[in-house]
Amino acid sequence: MASNPASSIPFLLSVILILVVGTNAGGIAIYWGQNGNEGTLAQTCATGNYAFVNIAFLPTFGNGQNPQINLAGHCDPTTNGCTRFSSEIQSCQASGIKVMLSIGGGAGSYSLSSTDDARQVATYLWNNFLGGQSSSRPLGAAVLDGIDFDIEGGTTQHWDELARFLSEHSKQGKKVYLTAAPQCPFPDAYMAAALNTGLFDYVWVQFYNNPPCQYSSGNLVNYWNQWTTSIPATNFFLGLPASPNAAGSGFIPAADLTSKVLPAIKGSAKYGGVMLWSKYYDDQTGYSSSIKSSV
Question: Which parts form a coiled-coil structure per UniProt (predicted)?
Answer without folding.
Answer: none
